[in-house]
Amino acid sequence: MIISATSPQVAIIGAGIAGLSCAAALQDAHCQVTLFDKSHGPAGRMSTRQGDGWQCDHGAQYFTARDPGFRAEVARWEQAGVAAQWRPEVRRFDADGTVSRCSATERFVGTPRMTAPATWLASTLELHADSAISALRREKSGWRLHAQDGEPLERHFDVVVLAVPAPQAARLLRDVAPRHAALAAGATMEGCWAMMLQYPAPLALGFDAAFVNRGALRWVARDSAKPGRVGSESWLLHASAEWSEAHIELDGASIAALLLPAFAQLGGPAPERWSAHRWRYAKAAQARDDVCIWDGGQAMGLCGDWLNGGTVEAAWLSGRALAQRICGA
Ligand SMILES: Cc1cc2nc3c(=O)[nH]c(=O)nc-3n(C[C@H](O)[C@H](O)[C@H](O)COP(=O)(O)OP(=O)(O)OC[C@H]3O[C@@H](n4cnc5c(N)ncnc54)[C@H](O)[C@@H]3O)c2cc1C
């Protein structure tokens, strides 16, 4: 590491689970960390839509915890009451009409909503929400970040970390690190249409979630079946990446007209209310296996799910690995 300060100032752009994991590990290693996120709060794609008397996770649905380090982290989350195991009854609907029961896999969710682990992690970190970063500049005294309006922030930072999806990293890196920008630009991310459905009473479909290997849908889940949920019965539909990409520019009403009949084919009745969300960058088409990237010469690092396999667990591991690289571990 070229950073000479005993307590280096680190700017992390992106407060999804990768940025938060990196930030927490760096703070433990006595770095002074500042997170910036363009959204109202942390969590990124581990997100939940909330309305009057209802809620629904519309990004990540659950996470695995296979790596020992991540298992230990999830155990901390469980102890803090911000995550729990989810034991849904899962079906698989195949193209040939077969419906089968899926074997039990260990799945975790945030409680009482998917954003909870991120909110908990962020509570001990310095996070600037509603702070989109539009550009980076390397100056004599360190990294300078520019806000959405193009104005430079006052502070300089010794280290900058980009914990954002690949297309957003590519844009920020174009002028300062063309080689890394090209790598990020080469990581195609696919979209996903999500629909959140509300019902006045629980549906009796005989399953809580299903992998769907036919038609437009790929995953449906009864959000209300997850631990700690309150409010009215809500279901989540995710369309496949191929279907979503082919329909990415449609509006919500057109999407509903196509996806609700697909849900009806699985037994799902018309909802009382619905809303749709377009994820432009849901998952990397081919996830890389770099884990993270650390450029010591520039004092700049990249982390995020697109570098390590496209899951919550992979994103957390990516952030932690980058923190270790920055600290020279
Ligand atoms: C529809 C969908 C379903 C999924 N299902 C699952 C699943 O079931 N299981 C699973 O493990 N994973 C799932 N995933 C993937 C999982 O959500 C991601 O792998 C993980 O959350 C990525 O974390 P991250 O920190 O790398 O990125 P993100 O969560 O995307 O965080 C990046 C953050 O950067 C911020 N940002 C971007 N640009 C800027 C900028 N210029 N300035 C400031 N802030 C910026 C964003 O607001 C965001 O908060 C799913 C994702 C989607 C979208």
TrEMBL record:
<protein>
    <submittedName>
        <fullName>NAD/FAD-dependent oxidoreductase</fullName>
    </submittedName>
</protein>
<dbReference type="Pfam" id="PF13450">
    <property type="entry name" value="NAD_binding_8"/>
</dbReference>
<dbReference type="InterPro" id="IPR002937">
    <property type="entry name" value="Amino_oxidase"/>
</dbReference>
<feature type="domain" description="Amine oxidase">
    <location>
        <begin position="114"/>
        <end position="326"/>
    </location>
</feature>
<dbReference type="Pfam" id="PF01593">
    <property type="entry name" value="Amino_oxidase"/>
</dbReference>
<dbReference type="InterPro" id="IPR036188">
    <property type="entry name" value="FAD/NAD-bd_sf"/>
</dbReference>
<dbReference type="GO" id="GO:0016491">
    <property type="term" value="F:oxidoreductase activity"/>
</dbReference>
